[in-house]
Amino acid sequence: MTPEGAVAFVVRGDSMYPAYLEGSYIIAAPGEDLQGALYRRIVATLADGRRVVKQLGPGSKPGRYTLYSANGPPIPDAEIIAFARVIGTIEPL
Questions:
Q1: 36 phi and psi, to 5 degrees?
Q2: Which tens digit of pLDDT belongs to each residue from 7-30?
Q3: Residue 57: left (phi > 0), alpha (psi -120 to 50), or beta?
Q4: pTM for this one?
Protein backbone atom coordinates (compact mmCIF):
# COMPACT_ATOMS: atom_id res chain seq x y z
CA MET A 1 0.00 0.00 0.00
CA THR A 2 1.34 3.45 -0.88
CA PRO A 3 1.12 6.43 1.46
CA GLU A 4 -1.56 9.04 0.86
CA GLY A 5 -0.43 11.63 -1.64
CA ALA A 6 2.22 9.37 -3.25
CA VAL A 7 3.03 10.19 -6.87
CA ALA A 8 5.13 8.72 -9.68
CA PHE A 9 7.76 10.46 -11.78
CA VAL A 10 9.42 9.17 -14.96
CA VAL A 11 13.24 9.28 -14.98
CA ARG A 12 14.72 11.28 -17.86
CA GLY A 13 18.49 11.37 -18.33
CA ASP A 14 21.32 9.41 -16.75
CA SER A 15 22.55 11.52 -13.83
CA MET A 16 21.41 8.86 -11.35
CA TYR A 17 22.58 5.85 -13.39
CA PRO A 18 23.08 3.07 -12.31
CA ALA A 19 20.68 3.70 -9.41
CA TYR A 20 17.83 4.58 -11.80
CA LEU A 21 17.54 3.77 -15.49
CA GLU A 22 16.00 6.20 -17.95
CA GLY A 23 12.30 5.38 -18.23
CA SER A 24 12.06 4.05 -14.67
CA TYR A 25 9.23 5.26 -12.48
CA ILE A 26 10.15 6.84 -9.15
CA ILE A 27 7.41 6.46 -6.53
CA ALA A 28 7.59 9.29 -4.01
CA ALA A 29 5.62 10.44 -0.97
CA PRO A 30 5.30 14.10 0.03
CA GLY A 31 8.02 15.19 2.44
CA GLU A 32 7.64 17.50 5.40
CA ASP A 33 11.11 18.01 6.86
CA LEU A 34 14.18 18.44 4.64
CA GLN A 35 16.52 18.04 7.62
CA GLY A 36 14.95 14.64 8.27
CA ALA A 37 15.60 13.67 4.65
CA LEU A 38 19.35 14.41 4.71
CA TYR A 39 21.45 11.73 2.99
CA ARG A 40 18.35 10.13 1.45
CA ARG A 41 17.10 10.19 -2.13
CA ILE A 42 14.40 12.71 -2.87
CA VAL A 43 12.55 14.24 -5.79
CA ALA A 44 13.16 17.98 -5.41
CA THR A 45 11.51 20.93 -7.09
CA LEU A 46 14.07 23.72 -7.24
CA ALA A 47 13.48 27.47 -7.16
CA ASP A 48 14.68 27.68 -10.79
CA GLY A 49 11.87 25.32 -11.88
CA ARG A 50 13.84 22.11 -12.34
CA ARG A 51 12.57 18.86 -10.83
CA VAL A 52 15.35 16.37 -10.06
CA VAL A 53 15.86 13.10 -8.24
CA LYS A 54 19.02 13.29 -6.14
CA GLN A 55 20.56 12.41 -2.80
CA LEU A 56 20.14 15.28 -0.34
CA GLY A 57 23.14 16.70 1.49
CA PRO A 58 23.70 19.82 3.59
CA GLY A 59 24.54 23.10 1.86
CA SER A 60 27.00 25.79 2.90
CA LYS A 61 24.34 27.99 4.53
CA PRO A 62 20.93 27.59 6.17
CA GLY A 63 18.08 26.83 3.80
CA ARG A 64 20.38 25.56 1.04
CA TYR A 65 21.24 21.97 0.18
CA THR A 66 23.70 20.07 -1.98
CA LEU A 67 22.08 17.57 -4.34
CA TYR A 68 24.23 14.61 -5.30
CA SER A 69 24.00 12.59 -8.51
CA ALA A 70 25.16 9.01 -8.89
CA ASN A 71 26.69 9.83 -12.26
CA GLY A 72 27.34 13.55 -12.50
CA PRO A 73 28.42 16.67 -10.66
CA PRO A 74 26.56 17.79 -7.53
CA ILE A 75 24.25 20.78 -7.48
CA PRO A 76 25.64 22.95 -4.65
CA ASP A 77 23.51 25.23 -2.47
CA ALA A 78 20.22 24.41 -4.19
CA GLU A 79 17.08 26.20 -3.05
CA ILE A 80 14.40 23.52 -2.70
CA ILE A 81 10.80 24.72 -2.76
CA ALA A 82 9.12 21.27 -2.53
CA PHE A 83 10.24 17.69 -2.16
CA ALA A 84 9.05 14.11 -1.92
CA ARG A 85 10.81 11.11 -0.38
CA VAL A 86 11.65 8.30 -2.80
CA ILE A 87 9.84 5.20 -1.55
CA GLY A 88 10.25 2.87 -4.54
CA THR A 89 10.96 2.37 -8.21
CA ILE A 90 9.56 0.48 -11.13
CA GLU A 91 12.15 -0.42 -13.78
CA PRO A 92 11.34 0.01 -17.48
CA LEU A 93 10.39 -3.08 -19.46
A1: -70, -15
A2: 999 999 999 999 899 999 999 999
A3: beta
A4: 0.90
